[in-house]
Amino acid sequence: MNRRKAIFSLGTLAASWVAVPGLLAKELHKVPSETRMNEDHLPKPAGRQGYRVLTDEIARKNLAAVFDRLIPADEWGPSASEAGCIEFIDNELAGDYGSGAALYLSGPFDPDNEKKMMGGPQFISSPRERYLTGLKALETWARNTWNSSFHTLSDSRIDEFLTNMEAGKIDLGKEIDSRALFELMLQNAREGYLADPIHGGNKNMAGWKMIGFPGARYDYRLYIERRNENLNLVPVSLIPGD
Amino acid sequence: MTNWKHIAGGVVALAVLGAGGWAYAKLNTARSAVADDRVALADVKNPEPAAIARGEYVMRTGDCVACHTAGKGPFAGGHEIATPFGTLLSSNITPDRRTGIGAMTEREFFDAMRHGQGSKGFLYPAMPYTAYAKLTDQDMHDLWAYMATVEPVENPVNENGGMRFPFNVRLAMAGWNLLFFDNSGFEETAGQSPQWQRGKYLVDGGTHCSVCHSPRNLLGAEVASRYLQGGNLGFWYAPDLTGNPHAGQGKTPAESLVEYLKTGGKTSLASGPMAEAVEHSFQYLTDADLRAIAVYLKTLPASGVTRPAPLPAESPAMQRGALRYEVNCSACHGVAGEGMGNVAPAFAGNPALQSDDATNPIHLMLVGGRAAATHDKPTGAGMPSFAWKMDDRQIAETLDYIRNTWGNAARPVDPAEVARLRERLGAGKNLPAN
């Protein structure tokens, strides 16, 4: 370092030494002045690390076969699996939803008694387990009934199966309440199709475009006076890609 | 290793420069001989109450407490000032005899405050003695009386212990002073009103505005020819205070400047370091003094910044920015950029937003911020962070829209600027869009 450099670097020192004090205003009453977000505040986008629960390809194809009859592709939009509902439910099942973190999953368990008490079927198994055993049972049922894998069945056979399942007329074994499984899959297909894309489904906001939902917007003052008019609002996702 | 000799040589060269006879004017403290040189601060007994009160006011104008406090009690020092060459700590300025300034005489106090020469050697210009040089003998004397009443706190601080060689050599600062320090006191300007003189005195002295609001040259000294025309502080930009109508205060009424300093503002809100200046210093000043500051600032000749042509509204990027503004910003900042009085600043016509330097809006988009919380306006409204939901290009586009709509005009923001500040602020990456 020559003299010129020494002076120069001292100068840089001077340029950078505007002291920023960190004393809180007493008027803030100890409310932190920082408003930046930390990890705990942030949503957790569905990962892209591949399937974590639905690792079996047959099970995945079978679930897609069910989902795509519940929400088939048509002129209004893509099918459930095309819109990412399999990725969505896999991500959910890998997390707190799948483990039933918010559910009471301990005994005693007397299905009839508790169904009566609670007005609906109760489960000790977590949603993750219900999916895994349910999808296995689906495949077994298809093998036994039609001697083929479930996802290779025709649309009409799957429709017939789902209709009977919804009516409680399908026996998938002692351990499985098939009507409840149908309802679970229907609910999750809808959620995947309509939840924010951050959760893995509703790709390209296809579900929102289908129903005309404008997405994660904060404020509608610009539009509130405009009645009986198609506002053609572009949907907006929580983490916009454009 | 080979550099050590050169570094040492550089320091010696600076020291020699500093010690040179022609440095006399820069380092001469003779005008502070008016101060008593016998009684130490810790031994000052019963200062005059009126002097204490006036001295507290001088302390408020200088905002000493903000930098000299870090958890060990008011004025006990230890506040960290990060520099690329190590960390400086603010000194303990309580009257503690061993670890504070209790052993200093009034003369030594004057020498430190006005000439940058402290009990341990030359001060680093992080301490704005460059501005306090303007303080009058009377104000200094009152401040001395006030400091005598501060509770002594034992808190040893090794101010430059965290500085790397050669920046831990205080004598080197003599060289810097020699080159850049204006050691003279405040001088009245002929033909101006007493109110204006008072304003200039406060701006250049106690409140040390130019420390942030004047740009610095490559050697770190304020550029006199661009006095108060705006300065970059790294994480923040201290805006143009001159009469420039585009990026300065040319269109800001003096009353608005007073309200801003007294309360934190209404359509333009103080945030970042300025929020702290308002909270700890300006809100305590008298209306007459704030008025004097405003009157003085309003006479500053406009900087040379010119208004660029606004970016065309119809480009796809501006359209994306418009949607993003509507979705994320308009609820508080208004569908026409009109803001929400006292809580969210207006964007339309806001000069601070339209400066060439976009550090502040980028900073606030990335990590958010908080408006000044003052006695008059205690809310301290918060701006949330958008670093998690927008990438660098999206933030740049949003700012381009804000800076070029409703009559605003400013150069486009480069996503690389956002990336740099994101990195330096540790704002984290945005979440992936699925």
From TrEMBL, chain B:
Pfam families: Cytochrom_C, Cytochrome_CBB3. Heme c 1 binds at C64, C67, H68. It is found in: Cell membrane. Its cofactor is heme c. Heme c 3 binds at C329, C332, H333. GO terms for molecular function: electron transfer activity; heme binding; iron ion binding; oxidoreductase activity, acting on CH-OH group of donors. PANTHER family: ALCOHOL DEHYDROGENASE CYTOCHROME C SUBUNIT (PTHR35008:SF8), BLL4482 PROTEIN-RELATED (PTHR35008). This is Dehydrogenase cytochrome c subunit.
